[in-house]
Amino acid sequence: MRVSAGNIALRIVATLTVPLCALCLSASPSLAQTAPATRTPPKAPATQATPATRTTTQYRAPRTPDGKPNLSGIWQAINEADFDIQAHDARPGPLVVTGAWGGIPPSLGVVEGGPLPYRPEALAQKKENEANALALDPVVKCFLPGIPRATYMGFPFQITQSAKFVAFTYGYDYASRVAKIGLKSESPVDSWMGWSEGSWDGETLVVDVTGQVEDTWFDRAGDYHSDELHVVERYTATSPNSLLYEVTITDPKVYTRPWKMSMPLYRRLEKNAQILDYNCVPFVEELMYGHLRKVQTPEEKAKEDSTLPTAPSNGPTRNLDEEP
Questions:
Q1: d(CA 62, CA 60)
Q2: Strand partners, 101
Q3: Preceding omega of 148 cis (within 30 degrees of 0)
Q4: Domain boundaries, the chain
C-alpha cells in the first residue's frame, strides 16, 4: 500500500509529540501541584459570631425593683475640668508662694466641638473673671458650686434612687439635690443647686436642671453663665463601675448656641467608701470677715487694759484655804 507524503508527516509529528509530552510531565510538577488549592474555610462555632456579623451591644445595668437601671453608688470624676473645662496648657496657680502645689495641670478639655461659643461681650467678662478668679470665683468663698460643676470638682458624690426620686449627695460643702422623676413643675425660687426634674430614656437617666442663680461658675478659669442657664444632664452606665456623663448647656444671654461637655465617672470601690464631710465654712471666715476685726496697736491695747476694773491693792484679802 502506498503511503502519501501527508500521512508520513502526520505520523512523524505524532511520534515525536507523545515522548515529548511524557518527558515534560515527568520533569514538571503535576497540575494538581501547581494549581492553587481551593479551600473551604471552617465554619465558625455556633456560639461565636463571625467578624462580618458581630455587633456591639450596649451595657445593661442591674435593675432596681421598678425595672430601671440601678445607678446607685459613690462616683467621682477623674479629670482637670474644675481647673478649666476647655483644653489648656499647664500653668502656674494664682499664688506664687504655693509653687508647684498650686500649679494647674494641662488637659485636652471636656467640651465637645472646640472653644465655647461666647458672645463677644460675654467673652470679655470671662477674661475678666479669669484674671481675678481668686477674688471672684464663688467656690473660693465656700459657696455651693451649682450644676454641672459639683459633678467634677474632684470630690466624690453619691447617687441614691427610688421609683420617684433620685438623690445626689456631694462631698463638697454638704451640697445636695433631688431629681423628681416624672414630676413637671417650675422652681419656686432660684438656688445655688437649681431645680432638678428627672426622666428615663432607656438606659439613661436624664435630669433637667433650671432655676440656678447666676453666681456659679463652670470652672476656676472664669467660664460662667447667666440667670437663663438651662442644663440637661445624661447619666448612662457603660460598665459595672463607670458612667458616661453628658451635659448640654443652653444660655442665650452668654452663648450663641447650645454646647456640650462629656466625661466618664468612676465608681469608688473601697470596701468602706463613703461621703465624708468637707465643711469649708471655717476655712473662709478669715478671708471673708477678717477685715472686720478690730486691730489695736500695743499702745491702744495697754490704754484699754488700764481702764478695766481691778481689785484695790490695799483691800481685804482672804486665805484661799479658809471656808467662805
A1: 7
A2: none
A3: yes
A4: 73-79+117-281
Separation CA 87–CA 80 (nearest Å): 10
The residue with cell 468663698 is 141
CA 274 and chain centroid, separation:
20
* pLDDT tens digits for range 22-58: 433 344 433 333 334 444 444 443 334 433 434 346 8
Pair 278, 172: CB distance under 8 Å? yes
Q: Which of 8-17, 53-62, 134-143 has the highest mean pLDDT?
A: 134-143
Per-position b or e across 57-74, b if 16+ CB within 10 A of its CB: eeeebeeeeeebbebebb
**Under 8 Å between Cβ of 86 and 111:** yes
As a dihedral over the C-alpha atoms of residue 281, residue 283, residue 288, residue 292, rounded to 10 degrees, the angle is 110
In angstroms, the CA 52 to CA 42 distance is 15
CATH topology classification for 73-79+117-281: Lipocalin (2.40.128)
Output the 3-class SS for 188-200.
CCCECCCEEEEEE
State residue 316's pLDDT score: 55
Residues β-bridged to residue 18: none
d(CA 193, CA 212): 6
Count other C-beta atoms under 10 Å from residue 174's C-beta.
Answer: 14
Distance from C-alpha of 261 to C-alpha of 107, rounded to nearest angstrom: 14
- Give 244's strand partners: 236, 264
Q: Mean per-residue pLDDT for 224-246?
A: 98
* Residue type (1 letter), 134: L
155 phi and psi angles, rounded to 5 deg: -100, 145
**pLDDT one-digit tens code per residue, 49-58:** 433 434 346 8
- In sign, the C-alpha dihedral spanning 136, 142, 143, 147 is positive
Residue 180 has pLDDT above 60, yes or no: yes
pLDDT of residue 114: 85
